[in-house]
Fold this protein.
Amino acid sequence: MRRESLLVLVLTRRCDRRCGFCPQEFSDADMAPDVLDAAISGLLPRLAARPRVKLFGGEPMLRPDLVARALDAVSRAAPRAVVELSTHGGALAAGPGPLAGRARLEVFASRPIPAAARLPGAVLNILLAPGESVVATVARVARGRAAGFRRFNFLPAYFTRWSAGELARLRERFAATRRILERLAERGDLVEVVNLCRASSTPLYNDGLVVDCDGEVYSSNVMLAAAVAPRKAELRLGHIGEPLEKAACATSADVVARSVPSDVLAATFAADALLSEFCRNMDAANLGRRAAGEAGAC
Ligand code: SF4
């Protein structure tokens, strides 16, 4: 039996933002409620003892009804499961909606909205696209902390072109970020860098059981990337309600290597290497990890 620990539910392929650096392929598709129910009841029992469920998109908060349905169904089927929700955060300005009172939920928001920071397990995604100055990056981290976020996840723009100059500036942006986190720590204001607890075979995306809006099941959510979509059949495991293949025809890393232009891939790995360097430096300075025993600690 397959024992992955991650189930990704693609609740919608829609997004009301079109960030220039976003690698996703969009459409008008939403997941039907019966597909969502079948995915949770059929696939969650296949996962390891402490599963993670990722509510993904597009922008999942465009369908708060599906978010609520998924959270209710997961808490009934696997009370120990941790649920992650990735959102740009726009909907949270009006309040937490279906996210209120969910103890095992981690919300990854991309905007420093105080209402989002008050959610348990809230994480601020700091998206690092080419073209931003060192000062602007540091200011965004400071705004996030001022909004109340204590957990940060740094995401360089992947599957896009970075010039050598922009990569050099990204290293400076990371160095300046480390300095601001050191200054906070000197004042006793410890924050967590969530990246220190995460690893993936493909930058940005995750291996696991991934259910698309139409009920098709894949081995990685990298099939959502526009560059990879023409080869997504190589990552297909089957359809919910049917027996799944034990493994896809190819690994996500292999499909990415054959789908993404070599210069874009090289830039992606270079940006990812700078993120790894930042994480190593944080670890060496004994910064960025939550204390053992705290919720979310690795
Ligand atoms: S990065 Fe997020 S908010 Fe921006 S277009 Fe992509 S899915 Fe939408």
